[in-house]
Amino acid sequence: MSKALLRYIRLSPTKARLIAREVQGMNAELAIASLEFTPNKAAKLISKVIASAVANGGYDAQDVIVTSCRVDAGPVLRRFMPRAKGRATPIRKPTAHILVEVGTQKVQAKKVESKSKDSKVADSKNTEAKSAKKPAPKAKATQKAPAAKVESKEDKPKTAPKASAAKNTTAKKKTEGEEK
Known about the structure:
CATH architecture of the largest domain: Alpha-Beta Complex
Distance between the termini: 95 Å
Structural class: alpha+beta
Radius of gyration: 36 Å
Oligomer: single chain
Largest sheet: 3 strands, antiparallel
Number of domains: 2
């Protein structure tokens, strides 16, 4: 894996990050080719940094991929523009640092395989832990319904819900049946 770093570039880091996200994980040759035809100042600079990282590692651009492309904020140049009535408004001229890392595809494949093995082991542990924590499903216990409340006519609301009205009528029928 090799790196290249371009520092103090007169470029907005937020605009450069948009381009940097596009090339992460791409083949270096494909990334350089696509960036050459992108009409953006950041695209041309990032393609040069990718080419430099490939050359620093002594690789061929076809054999490597861009593992990470990071754009950090550099110092901001502050200028002032004179305005009306003796005022001055600030002008911010941001700078950026571009860091590109490239690596061979074989190394990336090994990393992906090891991560997938680790994730499978972690997944199996998580499922075992969840099954151990989860109690066995219990049979539904029959719960006794609370005894129906007999209310006087004064306590009853004028419009009772249908469900409670059904309970009251069944309770009345039971009490009437018991009395007879």
